[in-house]
Every structure is written in C-alpha cells, then in structure tokens.
Specification:
Elements (H helix, E strand, L loop, with lengths): L5 E3 L6 E3 H26 L2 H23 L5 H17 L2 H10 L9
C-alpha cells in the first residue's frame, strides 16, 4: 500500500496529495493563459498574437533553462537571435529608425 503525503495548500487551507495540487495549479495557469490569448485575439491581429505567444514561449524556455541549470548551447543562441530579429522585423524597427533619422526637424510656425 502506498502512503500519500498530503500537502497543505497555503491560502485555501485544504490538504490534498501533492500531485493533485500540481495538476490543479497547472489547470488554473493553463486556463489563465488561454483566456489571455482569447482576449488578445479580439484586440490584435492574428500575426501579432502569434508573435506574442512565440515570445512568451521563448521567455518560458529561458526561465526553464535557468531554473533547471541546463546548458545554453549555440543552437539556443541562434534561436534567440532569430526570435529577436523576427520581432524587430515585424515591428519594422529598422524602417522607423531610418525615417526618423532622415526626416528634417520641422519647426512650429505660428502666424
């Protein structure tokens, strides 16, 4: 017979097996994430939502690598470069920088 150690949930004050607590926490966080993406799709274009979700996954990957102390290989650096270049290309950062530099400063004329 397997004896299950109960975990006392701090805020709620309920005791449950630790694996049930992990499952419940995972379900709640997944619900919040999906709810946020659904709201985001009503406010942004589908390409912007895809970009934001990709950046969120990238941040999750970086946190996971740091937390579990896995090596950050050359492939990770290359992927990081691709993510940021893609983000900057989508937001047209380089085009906007070129326009602001090449445009002369306009003076306010009041008659």
């Amino acid at each position: 017979m397997v004896v299950t150690k109960l975990y006392q949930v701090p805020v709620v004050g309920v005791a449950m097996p630790i694996m049930w607590f992990y499952l419940l926490t995972n379900v709640i966080t997944q619900y919040v994430c999906i709810w946020g993406v659904l709201i985001l799709t009503t406010e942004c274009t589908s390409l912007a939502v895809t970009l934001i979700v990709t950046l969120r996954k990238f941040v999750s990957l970086i946190i996971s690598i740091l937390y579990f102390q896995n090596p950050f290989t050359v492939c990770h650096w290359l992927d990081t470069l691709f993510v940021f270049i893609g983000t900057l290309m989508y937001k047209e950062v380089w085009n906007n920088l070129g326009i602001t530099r090449s445009q002369p400063q306009k003076e306010d004329k009041k008659n």
